[in-house]
Amino acid sequence: MLPSISRPPVAGLSSALVLLVFAGGSVLDAILRAIYHYSPAPGQLPVLLLAAVPVFIATGLWICLRGIKSLAGTSLLQLLLATAVGVVTMASTLPLSWYLGIGLVLWAMRLRHNVLTWVGTSLLVLAAGAQFEMIGFSGVLFLPFVLTPPVFLGAAAYYQWHQVRHTQVEADIESEQSTELHRNRYGREPGH
């Protein structure tokens, strides 16, 4: 079992990690769906792997967020939900997984980040449009439809990661200024 590493929570880091893992999972999902769609005799392996993609995403999130104790319950809930969604949608012909939207909306409720809500809701609308045949995804439109979630999630992950990196630099500058002010005022480092 992997050791639990406790980390101090950084504003937005959890959301950035969630988006990065979901983006990676959506790339795997897109590759497997394209293989399943374009292969002449797909067999059972691609179907089982497609059903396991939500579980891979939930496991990846657990690995990334295992050090933040307050998110342990949500990670377990996501793993159970991913297993259920994977089994229910095993033989689905949809070009994307419902779990991409459902999982992001649940993480948005837990982490209270608008980026997760927007991306998750958009992916749910895309999946619902395909499920109820309001959006065509057959023929020439299949590949662009499959590539939309990875591009969308990748852009959101890049945006959130950039925000976290920019916030980290500001926090470090503020902490350096605070330390310098304390040194000038008291002639020693803080905590000594």
TrEMBL record:
Keywords: Membrane, Transmembrane, Transmembrane helix. Residues 173-192 are annotated as: Disordered. Residues 179-192 have a biased composition (Basic and acidic residues). The chain crosses the membrane at residues 45-64, 76-109, 115-132, 139-161. The keyword Transmembrane applies. This is Uncharacterized protein. The lineage of its organism: Bacteria, Bacillati, Actinomycetota, Actinomycetes, Micrococcales.
